[in-house]
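User: Please fill in residues for this 236-position structure.
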């Protein structure tokens, strides 16, 4: 039986590329995104390559959408092996809040935290029991070096806070799965040439997904509760 993967934020960039990579490895991939209808042409291209992909509607910033997605997934698919929490936002604060922590708006922090941290938390909370019951699972939270306490500074406070907190989510749930074959890790893809990263980024999308796919396909006994880039452990 095919292994099943959910990839959030799968309409483009790292999410789309990760979905294709896993599908090429034989996974049935649920490509979760806010507007599946807008990505249908790209989904069809993947299907024409005989890849087993399905688009499902999900807005990770909306708890009702998460609930609806999980219910539909359990009803239509029913088993889960891999969850890649890739969906995320980076809000450009036109009032200088990106560079000056004293100008960072509470609304920017709330919106960023809701999408980048709370959404993944709720998805794991609702889907992890399936993995535990089946005795297998791989959860990959897409974090960032900007969330490292080791190199923290005042710029981009909202984004940094959300990714540092996402790493805590990784640690919290990894404690729940100790001694099992359910592995939960954070991955930093680096600065990647996506819509968020921009054309000036120093890594291609293919380079960015390398560590994501690695964490999603770890063998039994692989690391859990860690933070990695390209398979190499990072400091928190």
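Assistant: Residues filled in for all 236 positions:
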């Amino acid at each position: 039986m095919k292994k099943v993967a959910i990839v959030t934020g799968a309409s483009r960039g790292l999410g789309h590329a990760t979905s294709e990579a896993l599908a090429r490895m034989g996974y049935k991939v649920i490509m979760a995104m806010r507007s599946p209808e807008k990505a249908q042409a790209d989904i069809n291209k993947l299907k024409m390559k005989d890849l087993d992909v399905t688009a499902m509607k999900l807005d990770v910033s909306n708890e009702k959408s998460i609930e609806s997605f999980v219910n539909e997934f359990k009803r239509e698919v029913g088993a889960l092996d891999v969850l890649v929490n890739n969906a995320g936002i980076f809000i450009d604060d036109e009032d200088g809040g990106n560079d000056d922590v004293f100008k960072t708006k509470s609304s920017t922090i709330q919106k960023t935290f809701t999408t980048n941290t709370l959404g993944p938390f709720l998805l794991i909370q609702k889907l992890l029991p399936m993995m535990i019951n089946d005795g297998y699972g791989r959860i990959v939270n897409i974090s960032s070096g900007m969330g490292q306490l080791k190199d923290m500074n005042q710029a981009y406070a909202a984004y940094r806070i959300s990714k540092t907190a996402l790493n805590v989510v990784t640690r919290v749930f990894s404690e729940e799965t100790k001694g099992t074959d359910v592995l939960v890790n954070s991955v930093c893809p680096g600065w990647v040439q996506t819509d968020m990263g921009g054309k000036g980024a120093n890594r291609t999308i293919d380079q960015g997904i390398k560590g994501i796919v690695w964490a999603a396909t770890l063998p039994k006994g692989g690391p859990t509760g860690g933070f990695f880039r390209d398979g190499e452990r990072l400091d928190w």
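For context: Residues 4-233 form a domain with the Rossmann fold fold (CATH 3.40.50.720).
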